[in-house]
Amino acid sequence: WGGAVTVFGTRIEPGQLLHADKHGFVIIPEDARHRVLTAARAMDDNECETVIPAARQTQGMALPEILRGMNGAAALFAERARALGSRGGEWK
Questions:
Q1: Is there a contact between 41 and 48 (Cβ–Cβ < 8 Å)?
Q2: Which residues lie below 8 Å from residue 87, measured CB to CB, with a gap of 6+?
Q3: 6 C-beta neighbours (distance < 10 Å), count
Q4: pLDDT of 26-83, one tens digit each?
Q5: Are 25 and 18 contacting, i.e. CB atoms less than 8 angstroms apart?
Q6: From CA 3, how far away is CA 88, in angstroms rounded?
Q7: Any residues with CB less than 8 A from the CB of 43 and at least 6 apart, and which?
Q8: How far is the CA of 10 from the CAs of 18, 25, 49, in angstroms?
Q9: Widest Cα–Cα separation across the chain
């Protein structure tokens, strides 16, 4: 507890901020931490304004109609993510 660990050859120190997903992890540099919260809030707002409403409006719809709506919402989500300054990755 409270000590450094090595994960897949990378030393992690106590207090370091990490981002991890199915592809691996990165250490967020200390000088970038403030931007992470801003970016996370922007992406959460984007999802709440696009994908979530589309999913909530599916009751009683046929599958092809649901897929059209969700695909449209995903495209709008990606467009807005690019506008936020995305530099590639999953939503490029």
A1: no
A2: none
A3: 8
A4: 999 999 988 888 988 999 999 999 999 999 999 999 999 999 999 999 999 999 999 9
A5: yes
A6: 34
A7: 81, 84
A8: 12, 10, 37
A9: 54
User: Which two structure tokens, joined as six digits, stand for 20?
Assistant: 């991890």
Burial 50-82 (b: 16+ CB within 10 A, else e): beeebeeeeeeeeeeebeebeeebeeebbebbe
Q: What angle do CA 42, 88, 82 make, to 5 degrees?
A: 45
Residue 15 identity = G
Read off the tokens for 47.
């999802």
